[in-house]
Every structure is written in C-alpha cells, then in structure tokens.
Amino acid sequence: MFAATAAGFLLGASLIIAIGSQNAFVLRQGLRGEHVLLICFTCALSDALLITAGVYGFGELVEHSPWIGPVARYGGAAFLMGYAVLAFRSAWRGAGALEAAERAAPSWKVALATCLALTWLNPHVYLDTLVLLGAASVKYAAHRASFALGAVCASFLFFFSLGYGARLLQPLFARPLAWRVLDVVIGLVMLLIAASLVS
CB under 8 Å to 73, separation ≥6 — which residues? Predict the structure, then answer.
C-alpha cells in the first residue's frame, strides 16, 4: 500500500511540476495575492477528479473514442493562443500588470472562470491525469485507491506551495521590468504548448 501511494505521489508530482499555462496562472495569482485559496483549491480539486477518473478507467474510454483527441487538441491550442496574446499585450502595455495595488482585483468569478478554462481546456491535463496516470495505476491494481491518493496529495501540495510560495518572490516583482518579463515568458509558454498540440 505504501509503495503504491509513494509511486502515485512521485509520478503525479513529476507530471504536475512541468511548466504550463495552469501553473503560470497560479504563480501570477500568488504574486498578486488575488483569490489564491480559491485558485489553488480549484486546480487541486480538478486534478483530484481527473486523477480518480484516470485511475478508474477513463483512459480506456479516450483510447476507444478517436474524436476526443483532435477536438481537445485544437480547442485547447486555440484557447492557449488567445491567452498568449493577452499576456503579450499585458507585457507591452506594462501598466496593466503593474498597478495591482492601485486597482480593484478581477472578481473571483473571472479568476475562477479563467482557472477552469486553463485547467479543463488543456489537453495535456487529460494526457497526464487520465492516460499516463491511468495507465501507470494498472501496475498497482490491488491498491488503486492508494496510488490515486498519492497522486492527489502531490497535486494539493504543489498547487498550494506554488500559490502561497509565490509571495516570497514579491520583492523581485516590485520592479516593473519583472512583470513584463513574466508576461513574455507566460506568453511564450502558451504558444509553445499550443504549437505542440497541433504539430
């Protein structure tokens, strides 16, 4: 049982830590201190649902429904490209990203909608949680619940560490240039992920 939990935790962590659109959004929210608890919990809960679905067989459904792959890929790529444009525009304008202390934060509804879109419209999320973790769990068929628990724990630990740990970087992001660089990096990450989806 412990081996299954540890395996789930390590594999889940290795897949989640990779830089992506969702992680970039969580980092940004953490740096600004906007709706951090809501965003971290939403990301972790979404992962928990997807991991559970993957471990208990959704990966097999994806393999037997060829149309799901292209729809997820191209839809996700289009969304990520749009988000990249917004990030580049923010970097170009500068002030929009830097006046967080002087303007009202976007409502929790807007932040939640963005978070859900970056999570559920990202095909890589399904590949990681449903397919890869689902396939890996077969090895631990007798302890699937433990395997899933380990992966879910890794997700909660990572997202809350990223969201609240971002505050340690706030002195760096007191500089206008740092925000612009972050926006450019986020935009490039979005474009690279989008390109990988359609290539």
Answer: 123, 197, 198
